[in-house]
């Protein structure tokens, strides 16, 4: 298989893994006051160490901590920014009739970055990575706008809000770099609002025109990463929702493809293409750079059944009608546990999925 020394890799993954039973029990014990923060972190350390070793054994080049220290893929990071806090909501987010825990985030003061617990989390992963690349995932800056309850008393001016969020992310990215991070991924479900008629209605209900909002999202990403060091790779994963093997949004990339594929300045895009819900590959025609890596999520992380390798290979060839084959990589369409509850499949099935990605990539990218 074609080899690279930095991500994204020809066989890659989004980042989160199913939480082991021992870790779930320990988090519950901490919640009930039965163990201390230090005792929980020691268990997390042990389980992350096992996870990293497993990722190496199955053949991945990039290793993550599986988001094992988090309850949520986004709230845990965002709530530790200056001016943001986690709070209890009246109800959770609806995923096709399945509801998450009733949590949210709100902006109560000017947003900034002044250190973050996940910097230490990254350092622990970095020390385990060895010859492999340590990949770390954080939510996109758009997620604070998209999921945050923003006080109008703090930010009456939308541009001032985005200015502060961008500056905070610039500081965060530099802090991760200084800690040794060279492969950072921004996870983003906000873009999915463009993909369906229902989402388009949500945009207008919030007082925006679609192109206006797309420009805002593009600005937030591009300006957040514009000062990144040259040897740091920053990718973005665009998701339609992933909770207990369900989803929120449907629709292809068409309505935002001009911005996603033609204007974003990330090094790579992790894209959901695991079923008809994600549309076809034609939007890839808007790709204007031959250095943009496209990680196609053709293997679902939602269910354990393995996809037909021949069909997956055929779809990779189909995508190559629109972009250079050297720009294409393969991965699951999302992580296996965007929240601590995890998707509905076993750990054995999870690793079979990862091996499936690697085996197919080895066959195709020779």
Q: pLDDT average, as an integer? A: 89
Portion in helices: 25-40%
Quote the CATH topology.
Answer: TIM Barrel
CATH architecture: Alpha-Beta Barrel
Total number of helices: 11
Strand content: 15-25%
Number of strands: 12
CATH level 1 class label: Alpha Beta
Low-confidence stretches: none
Envelope shape = globular
Q: Rg to the nearest angstrom? A: 19 Å
Please give the alpha-carbon distance between the first and last residues: 4 Å
The total domain count is: 1
| Largest sheet report | 7 strands, parallel
Helix and strand content put the structural class at: alpha/beta
Strand order of the largest sheet: 1-6-8-9-10-11-12
Order of helices and strands: HHEHEEEEHEHEHEHHEHEEHEH
Keywords: Methyltransferase, Transferase
Protein name: 5-methyltetrahydropteroyltriglutamate--homocysteine methyltransferase
Pfam family, one: Meth_synt_2
GO biological process, one term: methionine biosynthetic process
Walkthrough of the structure:
- Helices cover 37% and strands 17% of the residues.
- By secondary structure, it is an alpha/beta fold.
- The protein has a single domain, classed as TIM Barrel, CATH 3.20.20.
- The strands form 3 sheets. The chain has a 7-stranded parallel beta sheet with strand order 1-6-8-9-10-11-12.
- The radius of gyration is 19 Å and the shape is globular.
- The N and C termini lie close together (4 Å).
